[in-house]
Amino acid sequence: MYKHLFFVFIFAAMFAVSPSHPYAKSSFSSNDEIYKFLQEAFQAQVSLSEEERSKEEVNDMLDPYFSETAKKQFLSENLVSENGKYIIYGSDSAPFYIPFFSYSDDTKVVESKDEIYVFEYFPENHEGPVSYESHYEGILLEKENGQLKVSQFLGGNIPKNILKNADHSMQERTQTSFKITDESSFLKKPSYQFSFLINPFDAFLLTGSIFAADNSNGVLAQIEKQELNGQLASN
Fold this sequence. Notes:
Helix content: 40-55%
Number of domains: 2
Order of helices and strands: HHHHEEEEEEHHHH
CATH topology of the largest domain: Nuclear Transport Factor 2, Chain: A
CATH architecture of the largest domain: Roll
Number of helices: 8
Shape: globular
Low-confidence stretches: 1-23, 177-221
Oligomer: single chain
Mean pLDDT: 75
Number of strands: 6
CATH class of the largest domain: Alpha Beta
Structural class: alpha+beta
């Protein structure tokens, strides 16, 4: 592992959530749900460093998020026992933790049947207390008793077909973002095209808001507003 436990506590503070211990889902409707699930799984791991607990309490905290295999792998490498209680102490390494994903466009999610691969490319870093070469880190979610859970800590061992799938999906999304259809004739209006050249980010935001509008009044209002902006920009 390239990360150290020092960063575990830093990211724990960034992604800290109130312990909810939800049941693992049989499916996720969006990447955001997957991200939330993984952040809660990471928080469950970090929470084991807060105080000593019984073995049953430790298992209860991890069960909603990790398969039996992944849980045993994590605990065998990190958990220590003292006076019949269990806790995880600081260490120079932190094996089998959820990676420090950015949970952004850089975090790739690829679904394959009943499997979900989540991974990210980390450029090399030679500054600060931790240094590492460029590498991938990822995890695999699979169903256990009908529920999706973290089943494997992949490290950099992401299957090539999954990496290729992620690259292909990114290319498709990029092409779709620039695609103009006949149904979206308003995109061909000179005012919109001028606005796109002047401020493409705002133009993209406008496009999304128009498609998301719930009624025709909302759509017309957005178009009229954009036409006015175009006229002002041209003066």
